[in-house]
Structures are given as structure tokens and as C-alpha cells.
């Protein structure tokens, strides 16, 4: 007797209701933050390309902070090392939640975004290395085009107004979370300067205290905030990039819900801190990092120098082919198929959108070429050009499918019984059909009443007046 054929697994299927609600809430904040990020980047470019350019340089290179603690830093460094620690803290909480309650808790479900993220980081690095090997350029910037900026990507979605289905939005969010994890590992491993083991030991000890307090369920921001600042300061002085402290503390939070909890502590803190990250920390980083003096010569250099050309091609070509190829190969070898009326061009468009590598790419660009300020500014210009090109290309591809996305989105959001739960999640619920029958009866009665009034009859008894 022949064995029954194995059922094909569906990828990009409809999300569960709790996961859908989490994604909607998270992306709403990220979208607002992304718009602020865009505005900050534009403001930085205007500030750096007007007669006020000298004031821009003066502000971002102005030093402040206690020199005795090794924290007499420029405003630009405070933004990159301090404010981005908040961003990476939120990334750590997101990753922890995905591991214990989200898509990454199921190895089969996690395979797709993890493979896509890995290929989406390896391909841009290979493109960069290939361009710089052929062009005899510096290979130090191989990691610059490997990151995805989820806030910037969602801001593009908000601007072009596409109704991207929640399954693709969730994939983009999960992909960015995994992407952030590997970006953090790259920073920790490849961009760590000479280690100060005393400071590093102090930071590790602080993290242990942080973990013990969490396990003992000690409450109070006035306990954790000073401790977090001490850990951050020690991490900065250790030679390890200070943002690692943020992600480490985020990973320690409990993100699994106990009986009677509406939100876990991690979800609760993330809900409080995410607006600070998306609405203040990341836009301020962009304001003091994205201000590149743009001229015809600089733009020409972007496409003629191997370092800058490698960044642009890495973001636009490498990121797209890496994510799409990783997704297609994973689905091919796991015998999975697309769901929700989606097609592979939709995945390709989202992969193109992931080529927007603004925030972390700018950070890595600063770390990779610290010894060459001129090249640092040119690489920043390349990040801006590559991200803009990816945004425009993704906008065109997504617009081509916008009518289909809008129908799918409206179907997902329809709530005719007005109970706050989309109808698509209640189709098999008898109570839902009872509510719909009552709603239809009320509508029919209202139509009869209006018809009687229009015909001159009595609305009370239905007899002619």
C-alpha cells in the first residue's frame, strides 16, 4: 500500500489573531517612527547642504559628558552609542518575544525568516567584496549593506499607501528582528576595539545583577534605569560597542505570559520603550549621522568608487536576491507553498523593500572607516543613495499589485458584526453566525421601515396613513 503523500506546508498564511494584533500594534508605532526618521534624515541633509553647514558640524562634534568616566563624547557619538542602545534594547525584547511566543518558537516556522535573513546578509556582503576585489577597493565595509531598517521600510509603505497583507508585514518584521540579531553579532565580533577587561568584567557583573533582579521580580524603573546606565557606561569603556548592552538587557526580559497576565513584563516594557526608540532615539541618530554634504562630485563618486558602488549594489541587488533566493530555496526544499493568494513577485517586492538599510548601515559605515573621515562620508552618501533606490524600486513593484493587496486587506479587516474581531477569524464560530443573522434581520427591518415611510405608510403599524 502506497504511503499517503505528505501535506504541503503553507508559508505566508493568515496569522493567528493574537499574532496579528501584536504585529498591527508594533508596526503602527514603527510606521510613525519611520516617518519621523525620514523627516530627520531630510532635515540633516538640508542642514548639511546650506550656509548653516558649519553649525551642523559644530553641533554634532560638540563634546559633552564626564571625562573622568571616559564618557566625554561628541553629540554624534552619544547618538550612535547611547541612543541606539535604546533601539537595540527594543530589538532584543522583540527577538526574545519571537523566540518564546512568536514565529521563531516553532523551528519549522522559524526556518523561513532565518534563512531569508542569513541569505539577505550574506549576498550583500558577497556583492560588496566582489565589487571591491575587482575594483581594488577597501574590503573593510563588507558589512555596511547587510542591515535592514524596518522603520524606514514601513515609512515607505506608509507614504506609498499600499495595503500590504499582514502575512507579508509579519514576515518583514520577523526578518528585520533576525537581521538585527546578526547585525549586533557583526558589530560585537568585527568592530570591537582593544578590550578593557576590567570594564568588560564590570559590565558582565552588572548584567548578572540585572538578571537576578528580574528573576526575583523586583519592580521599579528607579532600580533598573540607573543599573542600565552603569552597564552601558562600562560596556562603552570595555571596547565592545555599547549597543550590545542594550540588546543583552532586552534578551533577559520575560516575554512569556503567565496565567492572568494580559501582557508579559517584556511586552509591557517594549510597549513603553518602543515609542521612545522609534520616535526619539532613531530620528536623533539620523539627524546627526545622515548629514552628508551632497554635491555632483560626491554623487559621481558613489558610482565610481568601488567602496561606495559596492554598498549601493549590495543594498539594491544583493539584499533583494539574497532574501528572495533564501525564501524560494527554503520553500522549495521544505515542500512549502504560498498562501493567501500571494505570488512570488510579492515576495520579491518585499525583498526589495528590505534593501533599505538606513540606520544600522550608517552605524556600521562609521565603525568600518573610522580612520578615513572622507571615505566615511562617501559611504554614508552611498547608504542614502542605495536605500533611496531600493525604496523607489519597491514602491513601483508594490504599486503594481496594490489593487490585489487592497482587496486582501479589506477582507482581513472586515468586521460586520462590530465585535472588534475581524470576521475572517470567526467564520467557523456558531455565535458569529447568530450575530450576523441578528444583524441582517435588523438591517432588513430598517429597510422595511424606510420603505414604508417613503411610501406614505405608518412606520408603527405598516398601514397606509
Structural notes for this entry:
With 465 residues, the protein is mainly alpha-helical. The chain folds into 2 domains: 10-191 and 241-413, Na+/H+ antiporter like fold (Up-down Bundle); 418-465. It contains 17 helices and 4 strands. The protein has helices at residues 17-48, 53-60, 75-100, 107-134, 150-160, 166-190, 197-215, 221-238, 243-252, 265-289, 296-304, 306-333, 344-353, 358-368, 373-400, 402-413, 430-454; strands at 9-11, 63-64, 73-74, 336-338. The protein has a two-stranded parallel ribbon. A two-stranded antiparallel sheet has the order 2-3. Strand 2 (63-64) and strand 3 (73-74) form a beta hairpin. The protein is globular and about 85 Å long. The N and C termini lie far apart (77 Å). Residues 1-5 have low confidence and may be disordered.
Which terms would index this structure?
465 residues, mainly alpha, Na+/H+ antiporter like fold, two-stranded parallel sheet, two-stranded antiparallel ribbon, 17 helices, 4 strands, globular, disordered N terminus
Strand and helix layout:
Elements: E1 9-11, H1 17-48, H2 53-60, E2 63-64, E3 73-74, H3 75-100, H4 107-134, H5 150-160, H6 166-190, H7 197-215, H8 221-238, H9 243-252, H10 265-289, H11 296-304, H12 306-333, E4 336-338, H13 344-353, H14 358-368, H15 373-400, H16 402-413, H17 430-454
Parallel strand pairs: 1-4
Antiparallel strand pairs: 2-3
